[in-house]
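ping. complex inputs:
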Amino acid sequence: MNSPSPTDALDPVAASLVTEYLFDQGWSDGLPLVPATEESVETFLAHTDREADEIIAQLPQLGRKASVRDVATHAVMAGCRPEYFPLVLAAWDALSVERSALGGGWQSTSGPAPLVIVNGPIRDELGVNSAGGVLGPGFRPNATIPRALGLTVRNSLGVVPHALEQATQGIPGRWTMCVGEDEENSPWEPLSVDGGLQAGENAVSTILVRTCEFVDNRHFHDPVEVLRDFADTIGRAGAWIFRYSSVGIVMNPDHARVFAEAGMSKQDVREWIVAHAGKTEAELTAVGKGLSRLSDGPFDPDHFHPVFADASPACLPIIVAGSRNAAMSMVVRVFSTWSGRSFPLS
Amino acid sequence: MVGGIIDPTAGAQTRVSVEQRDSPVVSSLDGLRVGLLENTKRNAARILDAVGAALAETHGAAELVRRTKKQFAMPLPSDVLTDLKSTCDVVVIGVGDCGSCSASAVADGIALEETGLPTAVICTDAFESTARAMAELKGDADYGFLLTEHPVANLTDEQIVQRAGRLAPEVAARLLGRRSSGVVA
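pong. complex structure:
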């Protein structure tokens, strides 16, 4: 006879009843939730020195707040492991300095999603994926940390679709986007250094994004061809709504390598793209988006409008991640602009 | 709590409880100062201007007081609220034509009415649900906002005049406490 196993006590019928109960309460984002109990929340709170009652997220326009304990509750419900909790807290610290997250972003028709970026040795400790399929499924911290943020917005801040949440379509991958930066295969300093921290320090950054679009360029002969390809995707008219935009790149390690081998720093890449990405007044006018109505207009038809206000990391954040197996990168459309700040764990 | 499961919405369920009251109204707009609080959204100022002009012409409003709410998603800053209270007799607010600014316009209308100022809030009909959700959140679930057809951002000059012509009687009815359909086609 076999000796008893801890899994003998598992009760799938009871688990299913709990799952349905959680759906019935209206607390879910549409996927099954893990029930949060006082005990499980305490287990999460044990992974931070922060006070459980500290307010870490708020929307003044709705008069609603979330405490560290509320965030722990949602981290449990999202399927996080307790040791992920400091990353969830740091993500809220980062979101709290995102002007557009505070200024109605969660209610917006744009339906933006936070892209959470993890730097430092904690990636390996927790199994945060930074390699192949970095934006896709299969990795628990990547999937559950952003989900915890979305559940907090829904339940603690009360921003629920078809009521105070008015996303026109939302974006694919909303509340599922979290990547580790592949620091080991990047020729450059990590994003967290652009965000004001030391290389090698555990850090979380968040960027609100409106969508991702790929740049598949693997048969190039000259790095400038790849830069032109980035500039073309970044400059497309559909994304143009204001005078300037901010756009990030989740850059394939192979693209980063060829730029570095050509002697380019990350800032050199930024400056090249900022100088070349844009549209003429005639091109924008052709799609009904001419800028001549602005106070410094009107503009000649061949006047070149750059996409970017400047070449700072806040306007063009670059994160190296993904597999080297094909030279594809992802352009991420930033909602407003990145705060330019990364946050340590606490 | 059922089965020891935490209710994660417990904190968000606290709604502001306000005393049930009727909206403040005026008996006539004749000689009054009409505040026009625009929210920087495209065409908002032009629509409110045209509504104000119609109120002056047909209802004898004496003065149009133009103000801008710079952060359209956020609560009305207290200095703007104080300013409106001292410079206006009634306030027209709009145009709520986005996810956050429509809800916020309703919150501003309720905040101003709590100080005794009659208000007329204009949102586009695409945002009725979020405008109503904010009214409920503010404890004034029946707050009467006006809906106009979405979109307004791309209306031409001529269309703005037409739209304002249909809105103005509804705005006046709201400020005068008369029954309004709430919907302007």
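Chain A has a mean pLDDT of 96.
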